[in-house]
Amino acid sequence: MAPRKNASVSSRKTASRPAKETNGGPIADFDRDAELKAYREMLLIRRFEEKAGQLYGMGFIGGFCHLYIGQEAVVVGMQMALKDGDQIITGYRDHGHMLATGMSARGVMAELTGRKGGYSRGKGGSMHMFSKEKNFYGGHGIVGAQVSLGTGLGFANWYRGNDNVSVAYFGDGAANQGQVYESFNMAQLWKLPVIFVIENNRYAMGTSTARATAQADFSKRGASFGIPGIQVDGMDVRAVRAAADEAVAHCRSGNGPIILEMMTYRYRGHSMSDPAKYRSKDEVQKMRSEHDPIEQVRARLLEKGWASEDDLKDIDKDVREIVADSADFAQNDPEPDASELYTDILL
Ligand SMILES: Cc1ncc(C[n+]2csc(CCOP(=O)(O)OP(=O)(O)O)c2C)c(N)n1
Ligand SMILES: [Mg+2]
Description:
Elements: E1 19-22, E2 25-28, H1 32-57, H2 72-80, E3 87-89, H3 95-101, H4 105-112, H5 145-160, E4 166-171, H6 178-189, E5 194-200, E6 203-204, E7 207-208, H7 209-212, E8 229-233, H8 237-252, E9 258-263, H9 281-291, H10 293-303, H11 309-332
Parallel strand pairs: 3-4, 4-5, 5-9, 8-9
Antiparallel strand pairs: 1-2, 6-7
Helix pairs in contact: 1-2, 1-3, 1-10, 1-11, 2-3, 2-8, 4-11, 5-6
Magnesium ion binds near residues 172, 203 and 204.
């Protein structure tokens, strides 16, 4: 898991907030409020995903469902560096991204169960949710498609002359898709404000990066286009925040795109139907016990005396209530009317 920084990145100086260097790359200095915010938001994603897994097991969720458990620090740390107006786009492992943008737990859960109150009125499901209000552009089931679309969002920002950046998240598997490199080329040619976040969770379905990828240092994938890249400890929300600050500053100052490779890990299988036989239980257990993103924050909060066990229990209770309420809503809200079959479609 040792994160390395890419020596070719010169924009590191442009970090917008103080960050101290460690041998694993810069770490943002979090005060008590930042730690508590990160803790709460990561916990919300974790508990939400656990509940989604349960509802899936009970037959309430149809179709595909890809859980984000283990990767929470990536979206939460990134989101902390963004401002209103910045856009997010990702693949199908998307519930965490939605919650991090502030989309409601009720709306996301109800979409998972195919109910009227869901973000796509119950017609999209896990992989197809959007929120114009929160600048969340999906939710895409075609591996890699969001990279081109996210570059398009960057183009729109550039064309309109605003200072928004777009963040296109994709996996280590998606990083081997051809359209990714067409997007890199155009993004760098036109100096588009796009942050390409590669969530390297070490597997693409059941295939490890070692078996599938010729250049496993994904932070270097933009090298031939001159796009800088940084490798980040994606299990440490402070490291993510520091890299995100740097990337945002790079893009907003008109320097073009940047790549952030987040070294992360998913604890669950690829989707709910994956028995995960391609890796050992020990490997998963080791990540959970030594690198868990939520446990890291929890330990710091306790150690610094910034929160007591009781304070943390209260946060957990609040978060569980939000999730329980969303699950309740998602089971009781009606399904969309049959007439909805003919709306929101292109004929
Ligand atoms: C174009 C395309 N090819 C193949 C698939 C099948 N598929 C779905 S997810 C996936 C693996 C992607 O892995 P990665 O990009 O590492 O993301 P992760 O699931 O690890 O988050 C594949 C091959 C697809 N959905 N779309
Ligand atoms: Mg992957």
